[in-house]
Design goal:
This protein is mostly helical. The chain contains five helices and no strands. The protein starts with a helix and ends with a helix.
């Protein structure tokens, strides 16, 4: 009698677990969805602007649309990464109560990140 109850409870728990997993999976976007639909409006606007500017060029100066989208996306993600890194270093500089040498190193790191960000911004403008 107890064995049947345990089997029924296990079946119920298994069904609930599978249902929960299916619901969680349906909320997670698949890779194909993420590739086909751009959810970042800023990146979408940059891609549209790049494609419009590309159409205004002579046919000999144009690059392939997919290559253009790839270049814009890579530059955009690099700039976002640099922004986050700069914010993190700035936060550490503000909190740092240690030696001046460490603070100077953090300032140099932040300056280097800002220079890399400006270079990537220039690359994005060129694209």
């Amino acid at each position: 009698m107890k064995a049947k109850r345990i089997k029924k409870l296990l079946c119920i728990l298994l069904c609930l677990g599978m249902t929960t997993a299916a619901m969680a999976q349906s909320k997670t976007r698949s890779i194909l969805d993420r590739v086909q639909n751009e959810s970042d409006p800023e990146l979408g606007e940059l891609i549209r602007a790049a494609i419009e500017n590309q159409e205004n060029l002579r046919s000999s100066d144009r690059t392939k649309p997919l290559e253009l989208i790839r270049k814009v996306t890579i530059s955009y993600t690099q700039i976002k990464l640099f922004d986050r890194q700069i914010a993190e270093v700035s936060r550490k500089i503000e909190k740092e109560t240690g030696p001046d040498e460490l603070r100077n190193e953090l300032m140099l790191a932040m300056t280097e990140l800002e220079a890399k960000r400006m270079t990537e911004l220039a690359n994005l403008r060129e694209v």
